[in-house]
Amino acid sequence: MVTIRPDKISSIIRKHIEQYNNEVQVVNIGTALYVGNGISRIHGLDKVMVGELVEFVDDIVGIALNLESDNVGAVLMSDDLMIQEGSSVRAIGKIAQIPVSDAYLGK
Question: How far apart are CA 63 and CA 92, in angstroms?
Answer without folding.
Answer: 10
